[in-house]
Structure formats: structure tokens, C-alpha cells
UniProtKB/TrEMBL annotation:
<dbReference type="InterPro" id="IPR001448">
    <property type="entry name" value="SASP_alpha/beta-type"/>
</dbReference>
<dbReference type="InterPro" id="IPR050847">
    <property type="entry name" value="SASP_DNA-binding"/>
</dbReference>
<comment type="similarity">
    <text>Belongs to the alpha/beta-type SASP family.</text>
</comment>
<dbReference type="Pfam" id="PF00269">
    <property type="entry name" value="SASP"/>
</dbReference>
<keyword id="KW-0238">DNA-binding</keyword>
<dbReference type="InterPro" id="IPR038300">
    <property type="entry name" value="SASP_sf_alpha/beta"/>
</dbReference>
<comment type="function">
    <text>SASP are bound to spore DNA. They are double-stranded DNA-binding proteins that cause DNA to change to an a-like conformation. They protect the DNA backbone from chemical and enzymatic cleavage and are thus involved in dormant spore's high resistance to UV light.</text>
</comment>
<dbReference type="InterPro" id="IPR018126">
    <property type="entry name" value="SASP_alpha/beta-type_CS"/>
</dbReference>
<keyword id="KW-0749">Sporulation</keyword>
<protein>
    <submittedName>
        <fullName>Small acid-soluble spore protein</fullName>
    </submittedName>
</protein>
Length: 69
């Protein structure tokens, strides 16, 4: 049983996973070390929260840029 939440837009799962990995690298989460543990299994909750928070920040920033275009 997976605890992964479904995306709101069908078919966006793969792109969201890539986005999450990109943000994780930006904030210094070592994904290569954690891939053998299914990527996030051994990453501390604090670091996961940092990744999620930065993802939201980037999504809001992107949306705001689109609003002013």
C-alpha cells in the first residue's frame, strides 16, 4: 500500500517527481545516497518538509509570473 498522494492533474505524476528531485538537489538532499531506500525512505522529515516548502514556493512564484504576463 502506497501513501503517495495522487496528483490533481492526471498524468502529471512523473513531472512532479522530477520537480521534487530537482528541488531536493537545490536544497542539498543527497538523493543518490537515498535511492537504494526508495528515494525518501531515509530522508529526515525536516528535510522532506524543506523540499515540499520550496516546491510550493516555486509553484506560487511561477503562477504569479503567469498572472502578470
Amino acid at each position: 500500500m502506497s501513501n503517495k498522494k495522487a496528483t490533481v492533474v492526471a498524468g502529471a505524476e512523473e513531472k512532479m517527481d522530477k520537480f521534487k528531485e530537482e528541488v531536493a538537489r537545490e536544497v542539498g538532499v543527497n538523493l543518490e545516497e537515498n535511492k537504494k531506500y526508495q528515494l525518501w525512505g531515509r530522508v529526515p522529515a525536516e528535510r522532506c518538509g524543506e523540499v515540499g516548502g520550496n516546491m510550493v514556493k516555486k509553484m506560487i512564484e511561477s503562477y504569479e509570473k503567469k498572472l502578470i504576463e
